[in-house]
Amino acid sequence: xNLNQTLDLQNIPRHIAIIMDGNGRWAKEKxxxxxxxxxxxxxxxxxxxxSAMKLNVEYLTLFTFxxxxxxxxxxxxxxxxxxxxxxxxxxxxxxxxxxIKINTIGSITDLPKKCQKAILKMKDITxxxxxxxxxxxxxxxxxxxxxxxxxxxxxxxxDIDITESLISKQLQTHNLPDPELLIRTSGEKRISNxxxxxxxxxxxxxxxxxxxxxxxxxxxxxxxEYQKRERRFGxxxxxxxxxxx
Length: 245
Prior knowledge:
Layout: H1 3-6, E1 15-19, H2 23-29, H3 34-54, E2 59-66, H4 74-90, H5 92-97, E3 100-105, H6 113-125, E4 132-140, H7 142-156, H8 164-170, E5 181-184, E6 203-206, H9 216-228, H10 237-244
Parallel strand pairs: 1-2, 1-5, 2-4, 3-4, 5-6
């Protein structure tokens, strides 16, 4: 897909969220161990970040590791934690050169101390970058996030009217706009406890490609599909057209 000829560069989603799925199955299909797929998946992350920056996407959120993923074999989990550390440390110059701000959501304290330290260091080093905010969802559960937000409101704000705005401000994504586009790879058509509150009005795109095969062209296809849709937010087509006049 040719970027300049096909996509409307004036209608690029400001915030794209991606459920990166299929690393293990991709590796298994190739007769490799599951971890080989995770290593290849990391390479794709870097390419997609670069593609997003070409399009001037401001926010990119990646479902990196869920709370449910702790149930996986201990060996695989330990290798993933080490992969997180090496990836973050090896890409420091890339983040700084390209003005990428690293952000996280999820229960970061669940992670090993070394992993927490590497993440906190990178967040601090990149906190003034403004070109792209790259949010990594680590040990993340949307239900847990919403539950904790409600608890916080109840404990700290007695006799207060609980509104959507108030809940949004207590979520871990309070400093991010809601995603306009959610992409999931590997042909699975479910949300898997990811940004349940935030994607209430997001457009959904399900790619048949497993994450290691996801590329710039498929990202463009997702955005092209997004641009074909009419985002009404509960209004009628006529109302939307009248607002544009």
